[in-house]
Specification:
The chain has 16 helices and 2 strands. It is mostly helical.
Length: 475
């Protein structure tokens, strides 16, 4: 039965769930580094840029890193649906805790949001894939529609939460983000009857899962208590996260490729997952500086008015989502129009990396123009977001879809977590780059970042053909 633009009716439920979850997340992201660096006299925390960037990087990286255990918990214990519900409850609670004025509540709120997103984000995407039978040609289009929900939430939240936060009170912005997640949770519970059997039972139930989770939580609690007792700084924790990300990725792919019991075809596809993981990490290290580097540039170096009409700097965070909503149907039409000449998934990744890199070349020119301390036109950032949007549309929905097609069915949730782990690594790397905002000259910083994206794209271009051969009949 179809009932949502020619797709299963359950897609509407998941569309709205992700819309409100992204409303919550992007509302927080639009305000976070501005709130942390704002003077205490204006209600901010008064942090310097390196400290604020370290916290921002920890938060955004952990949001996605926890998608890996979040996918495992859904596969082994809860099932996808319960994971989404529990995750939504934690996200909403975290947003509401951020409203409290204490510093400890600020950190607790961010922690709750990271854990909740780790449970919700990978598993709601996996349920989308389960709405379609293997070989259903609507799957990619379904993910594109789902992606529109993500970006509708991302468009609305900086406008609403950003205005309340910057123009009224920072904590009202956090409150509105929590209300949004609550609305998403309510409609998911009300609309889950449209999901059929998707996501009800764990894919590979493990009777030892609960005890393993308990041990894991105990280890995490011990590590955090030890870090607190040792008086570790945020920068030290950020460095530790970088090591943890590297070790986690290496250990996981070692297990995946050398210890797992796979068919030869499954093993080849998992090699492709590894290559796409690296490309995705590099892309997101550039793209996800939107909430840090680009947000600071918007606040400090960009004119906050158009034709005499003033607006908060955080509103520029909505430009990317607006372009996605506008351009996603255009690119989808182009892919269909190309037919057999449509680029493969790895070729689209090349376009994604190139678009992200070119955006920073434009930003370097904008930074040069603002060197005289005169704010530049916001159209510079609009041009950057246009290039980044084209890159994102070539990579992100394609990556989501590729994970569901390349993953063996018994680890579907886990490999969706791997996809989000690549975004976690990208967020961490991007935050480390953002910490150099006041150390290097902006033209130098942005030129170097752009060169990383363009260089990675050219390297992947050389590898497109061998990657396609490993993918077999997956396109």
């Amino acid at each position: 039965m179809t009932g949502f633009f020619g797709h299963p009716r359950g897609l509407a439920t998941l569309f709205l769930t992700e819309l409100w979850e992204r409303f919550s997340y992007y509302g927080i992201r639009a305000l976070l580094i501005l709130f942390m660096t704002a003077p205490a006299a204006t209600g901010g925390l008064g942090f310097d840029v390196p400290r604020a960037s370290a916290i921002y990087g920890l938060f955004t990286a952990m949001v996605y890193m926890l998608s890996l255990p979040g996918g495992w918990v859904a596969d082994r214990l809860l099932g996808l649906r319960k994971a989404v519900v529990y995750g939504g409850v934690l996200i909403a609670a975290g947003n509401f805790v951020l409203v409290a004025p204490q510093l400890w509540s600020f950190y607790l709120g961010l922690a709750l949001i990271t854990v909740g997103t780790g449970l919700l984000k990978p598993n709601v995407s996996t349920i989308v894939g389960q709405l379609y039978e293997p070989g259903d040609g609507r799957r990619d289009a379904g993910f594109s529609i789902f992606y529109m929900g993500i970006n509708l939430g991302a468009f609305l939240s900086p406008l609403a939460c950003g205005y309340l936060g910057q123009r009224v009170d920072w904590r009202l912005g956090f409150l509105l983000a929590g209300i949004g997640m609550t609305l998403g949770l309510v409609q998911f519970v009300a609309g889950r009857k449209h999901l059929g059997s998707a996501g009800i039972a764990p894919a590979a139930a493990d009777p030892q899962a609960a005890s393993r989770i308990g041990i894991g939580l105990g280890v995490v609690a011990a590590v955090l208590l030890g870090a607190w007792a040792a008086g570790l700084t945020v920068q030290a924790l950020s460095n530790a996260l970088g090591v943890l990300l590297l070790v986690t990725a290496l250990a996981f792919f070692f297990w995946l490729l050398f210890l797992g019991q796979w068919t030869p075809q499954e093993r080849k596809r998992l090699v492709v997952v590894g290559v796409l993981f690296l490309a995705s990490s590099l892309f997101w290290s550039l793209f996800e500086q939107a909430g840090s580097t680009l947000n600071l540039f918007a606040d400090r170096n960009t004119r906050h008015s158009v034709l005499g009409w003033p607006f908060p700097a955080s509103w520029l965070q909505s430009v990317n989502a607006l372009f996605i909503i506008t351009l996603a149907p255009v690119l989808a039409w182009i892919w269909v129009k190309l037919g057999k000449r449509e680029p493969s998934s790895p070729a689209k990744f090349v376009l994604g990396l190139g678009g992200a890199g070119l955006g920073y070349v434009v930003l370097a020119a904008a930074a040069t123009a603002s060197a005289g301390a005169e704010p530049v036109s916001p159209m510079w950032l609009v041009a950057v977001y246009l290039l980044h949007t084209v890159g994102e549309l070539c990579l992100s929905p394609v990556g989501l879809s590729a994970m569901t097609k390349l993953a063996p069915a018994r680890i579907g949730g886990l490999l969706m977590g791997v996809w989000f782990l690549s975004i976690s690594a990208g967020n961490y790397l991007g935050a480390r780059m953002a910490s150099l905002y006041e150390t290097l000259s902006l033209p130098t910083l942005f030129t170097a970042v752009g060169g990383i994206g363009i260089g990675a794209g050219l390297l992947l271009l050389v590898l497109v053909k061998p990657i396609r051969s490993l993918m077999g009949d997956v396109k």
